[in-house]
Amino acid sequence: MMKKIESIQNRYVKNWTKLKTKKGRKIQQSYLLEGWHLVKEALLAQIKLQVILVTADFKEQAELTKLINQEQQLILISPVIAEKISDTGHPQGIFAIAALEKSLAEIPAELAGKWLLLDNVQDPGNIGTMVRTADAAGFSGVVFGRGTADLFQPKVVRSMQGSQFHIRLFTGNLSDWLTAFAQSGYPVWGTEVSAQALDYRQVKRTHNFALIMGNEGNGVDFQLLKQTTQNIYIPIYGQAESLNVAVAAGILMFQLSNY
Amino acid sequence: MMKKIESIQNRYVKNWTKLKTKKGRKIQQSYLLEGWHLVKEALLAQIKLQVILVTADFKEQAELTKLINQEQQLILISPVIAEKISDTGHPQGIFAIAALEKSLAEIPAELAGKWLLLDNVQDPGNIGTMVRTADAAGFSGVVFGRGTADLFQPKVVRSMQGSQFHIRLFTGNLSDWLTAFAQSGYPVWGTEVSAQALDYRQVKRTHNFALIMGNEGNGVDFQLLKQTTQNIYIPIYGQAESLNVAVAAGILMFQLSNY
């Protein structure tokens, strides 16, 4: 029989609620997956889940049962508990707790493929969306430079939509990465709103390259822009001052890639 | 001398705080612009502002003074009031109250140009970002079909980044709009994840067209998809199930446009 938790005072419930905070995730070395899409992505990627929490009205029970083995711990929780641990306010009736994954720190010896480098991007939704887009665009990895938000905070996790299970995530000094790309002979495209930059449609599509996206307000650090093969921009035709960074990244990732 | 409000109990403060809710905006027929970028965009677009609220530490006072005329009402508010009326939790020290603008309801006789049609898009951030991108891509207007979120809720306003002052926003029955496009002879591209759909890169770039983006979970309504010139899709190369709708809209708007 499935274990049941109904009291909001239960110590597990308290721990799960604490996963909303960076401190809570650090102490417990785990994070919360909310909603069927994310839990399913984790199961399909064979990520070990510490526990899966469902409410009585969770609708995909049959599909869930097919995807898990007998050892997987399942706990039935009350709707009130679901509301309490949810970050969205509209819980879908399923959650899972997964171990925090360490982002990779070492620059791989082989840099073939497509890489997205993020310099000081701030907004959690933008960060998660860019990881998801890089996954969709068949990128090899995403590298987080300085100023990276916590990758396992609920908003980033929600926007990644499970792409953390599909694509390699690195943290590191972007200047070192650019040096490695220069040695590999693969081009690095920086993004810059400047008369010196090149219209992105002038760049030849390739299989192997790196693209740097920068901070929402200030763009890519100017020292990094000096290390690139070429800096590029997306022309603005209307009166908007700029594009959202995740939208710009999506346009560039698909345009620069030779598939 | 500038009027000052310091008490959080002041009735104006109560009214401004109520602008966070749909009911409050409806009763007062106005909405809140938060942050210097938005207030500046409104002033540059010569939008009449009912009042501008600044805190003592607002840094762009000199630029603000240049942009306003003497009749513009300015009120100095305390940091506590700024926190209270802010939707972000990190107020930048400037706000303005603007009249709710009615979105246009009538289909224009001339449909030349580029149009973005939104069918039941739900997320306020996605909606605002798409309006901003349509502005940047030089579109003529955005049309909101069924299920449109409230355009003046704080999250939409924040993501639009002032593009509501640059581009025409319509509400209407998208099926009627598609009939009008058919009569005009301009193509309408629907978006659909389906084997019948065409790779978006096969579509010839044009000056005049409409693009329909759909609901985050369910896509564009299938009845609308029957009315289009051609339905298109963006191929996924990795393991992500889909792209974020605002990212997909950005890729398509820039790719389909002939500039």
Automatic annotation (TrEMBL), chains A, B:
InterPro entries: Alpha/beta_knot_MTases, MRM3-like_sub_bind, Ribosomal_eL30-like_sf, rRNA_Methyltransferase, SpoU_MeTrfase, SpoU_subst-bd, tRNA_m1G_MTases_N. It comes from the Bacteria. Keywords: Methyltransferase, Transferase. Gene3D superfamilies: 3.30.1330.30, 3.40.1280.10. One of its GO terms (cellular component) is cytoplasm. It holds the Pfam family MRM3-like_sub_bind. GO terms for biological process: methylation; RNA processing. The keyword Flavoprotein does not apply. GO terms for molecular function: RNA binding; RNA methyltransferase activity. The keyword Methyltransferase applies. Residues 32-104 form the RNA 2-O ribose methyltransferase substrate binding domain. SUPFAM superfamilies: alpha/beta knot, L30e-like. PANTHER family: RRNA METHYLTRANSFERASE 3, RRNA METHYLTRANSFERASE 3, MITOCHONDRIAL. Belongs to the class IV-like SAM-binding methyltransferase superfamily. RNA methyltransferase TrmH family. This is 23S rRNA methyltransferase. It comes from Liquorilactobacillus vini DSM 20605. The lineage of its organism: Bacteria, Bacillati, Bacillota, Bacilli, Lactobacillales.
